[in-house]
Amino acid sequence: MLCAAALATFAWAAKGHAECENGVRATTQAEQAALGNVLESVKRALPPAPQGWIIESDDEPPITNEICREVEQKPWFYDRSRTYRKKEGDEQRHAAITAAQQDLSADLASKQPRAEAIQARMQQLGDSIAEAAQKGDVARMQALSAESDKLS
């Protein structure tokens, strides 16, 4: 079971969130420091993992070094999230996932020879259709195309 906590801190506008028709400018060291301070404050505000849970991921968003001139005077958007995972049942979940992966691999392996045969036949049909086209044999092209459609 996954539980995610996310906290959005600003409102809009870092590079990539708007068209930059008027270009971009580099963010200042003071702006970068302020953004870093806000993100660090958000990190400290996120709760620790509850009893029986672990922090599975704790993202470290980058501090933007460029901003669109169209949005530089608007609040900037940043977010930080933390994902938690319940430790209880880890072994069972891992075993179930491993078993499902093994079943899928076995299923794909059993179908591989047929898939390769179909692919080879599709290649042959493509070559035959090209030959028929060069000869102007429309009836043969149609028949081969119909067979190719069935294989598809």
Could you describe the 3D structure shown?
The chain is α+β, with helices and mostly antiparallel strands and 152 residues long. The protein has two domains: 2-88, no CATH class; 93-151. Helix content is 51%, strand content 18%. The chain has helices spanning 29-45, 90-135, 138-151, and strands spanning 2-8, 24-26, 53-58, 66-68, 79-86. Helix 2 (90-135) runs antiparallel to helix 3. The model is unreliable at 1-18 (pLDDT under 50).
What's the quick description here?
The protein is of the alpha+beta class and 152 residues long. 51% of the residues lie in helices and 18% in strands.
- Tell me the structural class: alpha+beta
Number of helices: 3
The Cα radius of gyration reads 28 Å
Largest sheet: 3 strands, antiparallel
Shape: flat
User: Would you tell me the overall average pLDDT?
Assistant: 84
Helix content: 40-55%
Strand arrangement, largest sheet?
1-5-3
Question: End-to-end span in angstroms?
Answer: 40 Å
Proportion of strand residues: 15-25%
Order of helices and strands: EEHEEEHH
How would you describe the oligomerization state of the chains in this entry?
single chain
Query: Ranges with pLDDT <50 over ≥5 residues?
Result: 1-18
Give the count of structural domains. 2
The counted number of beta strands is 5
Summary tags:
3-stranded antiparallel β-sheet; 152 residues; two-stranded antiparallel sheet; disordered N terminus; 2 domains; 18% strand; alpha+beta; 3 helices
